[in-house]
Amino acid sequence: MTASDSPPVSAWRQRLAGAGLAPLVLVPALVLAAGMAALLAYLITWQNQVGRLERAAVPRLERFAMQLFAPPRRYTYLPHLLANDRTLRDALSHPRDSALVREANAYLERQRERTGATVLYMLDAHGTGIAASNWREKISFVGVNYAYRPYYTRALADGDAHFYAMGTTSHRPGYFLSQLVTKDDGGVLGVAVVKADLTMPDVRDYGGEVLVTDAGGVAFLSSRADWQYRPLKALSASDGASVARTRQYDGVLRAPLDLRTKRTLDSGAAIVDIGESGHYYMVRRPVPETDWHVNLLLPLEDVDVAAARMALLAAGAVALAALSLLYLWQFRLRLAERERSRAELEGAHAALARQHDALTALSDQLRVQSSTDSLTGLFNRRHFMESLERLLGTAQRHGEPLAAMLVDADHFKRVNDEHGHPVGDETLRRLAAVLQEETRDGDVAARYGGEEFIIALPRTDAAAALTVAERILDRVRAIRTPVPGGTLTVTVSIGLAVAGPGEEMAELIRRADAALYEAKRGGRDRVVTSA
Ligand SMILES: Nc1nc2c(ncn2[C@@H]2O[C@H](COP(=O)(O)OP(=O)(O)OP(=O)(O)O)[C@@H](O)[C@H]2O)c(=O)[nH]1
């Protein structure tokens, strides 16, 4: 098949529909369209909802940081105060003097109560705790060496320091403020330290979870109790070693949270899964002056549900629209089909009507032919006999006269013999024309056989019929048929009979024939009326 003789598109469409192929093509197309719409709606809704979360997340993080770090800043003055206190300096100078140390402990205890800080303590020049506000407690800082802690080393180097860290003894995160304590001669006497615990601010209205993680990713502050002291992911070897060395999570560190990053967004935030807990939008910020991070985790279940709902709606809408279009299309096809059937029916009907007309014409023609004599155009003998039978019946019912006359050409054999058969035929046609012209409507003139004619004249009595016969004789005498060398004239003899009451048709004809015989015998070219 070439391009030029391929069927037009509409024909293909009809073929598709007709062959039942439409569902094979349309159903997958519909499913694909609905699927695409669902996907698009899902992505757009998801993006919008996450955008909304993202816009809300940053101010929450800032608020959190403010709440977290506001309290410790209140204590910046305190280490300096301790470093210059005579009692404490005395205790540092004479650490073996238990009375001085007791006095220092009591002083620190009072200051702690007054200020609300978590622990106040004094380290000697080697970093060992000499006096502490928690000296009475089971886990006291007295006697513990903190020389490796940055707040100590930095104070030695810089005079003072502030430092956020996990407490190695308390295992609680805090804000450490330190101040170098010097002797009057400038030598190092020790370091005064104030620790303010960091506590978890109230984040109930954040719509999610907040975690503060250290450099190794351990969540040391968490809005969810079961996430506290758990690394976000399994600790790296070096982080594990560091945790072991500093001993800051001894006895509290738990299994990793198993955080898996699914996607990183342009903003730097990420979509993560946390173990079996679910699916979260996660944004994190470093905490200034520390190696910590604040992490905000917002659950994405609602976003997923909203996106899925929109996807479902979009797919439904597309499916509905597509089904409506399909229905319209089918409806149009069916309309076109019906229109075509109607046109076909009308065509068939018109063809039938034409056939019917042709048959009627043929039948008329046959009827005329079957009742007509082909040479003269007059009725034939069979038709005449049927007509006479009917006319005779009518005449007798109404008591009306009916005449019958037999008209026979005289010496016609001679015409044929002398001038040939065609001249004979022409003569017969001219005789027939005279008979046709001389009879009225309602009369029936027919060729009875050979050169003999017969006429039925209803409502005609003998006298009237005689007049007609005389006129026929005259007209025949006047016929001039051209023949080689001149013209031919003919005469006819007529036998006339008028039907008697109740007379049979055969009898009437027989009497007319007898009268005709009389006319021939009487010399021809005349009319004889049956008695
Ligand atoms: N040309 C022609 N001749 C016909 C036709 N039918 C009959 N004839 C002839 O008419 C002639 C009739 O002859 P006959 O019956 O002997 O009678 P006639 O010669 O007319 O003599 P009369 O009737 O006694 O006057 C015959 O020669 C037939 O052949 C016809 O259709 N055409």
TrEMBL record:
Transmembrane regions: 21-44, 310-329
GO MF annotation list: diguanylate cyclase activity
Top-rank EC class of the record's enzyme: transferase
Annotated ranges, domain GGDEF: 400-531
Keyword check for Zinc: no
Catalytic activity: 2 GTP = 3',3'-c-di-GMP + 2 diphosphate
Any matching Pfam family: GGDEF
The protein's Enzyme Commission number: 2.7.7.65
Keyword Cell cycle carried by entry: no
Keywords on record: Membrane, Transmembrane, Transmembrane helix
PANTHER family assigned: DIGUANYLATE CYCLASE DGCM-RELATED, REGULATORY COMPONENTS OF SENSORY TRANSDUCTION SYSTEM
Xref: NCBIfam families: GGDEF
Name recorded for this polypeptide: diguanylate cyclase
Species: Pseudoduganella dura
Lineage start: Bacteria, Pseudomonadati, Pseudomonadota, Betaproteobacteria, Burkholderiales
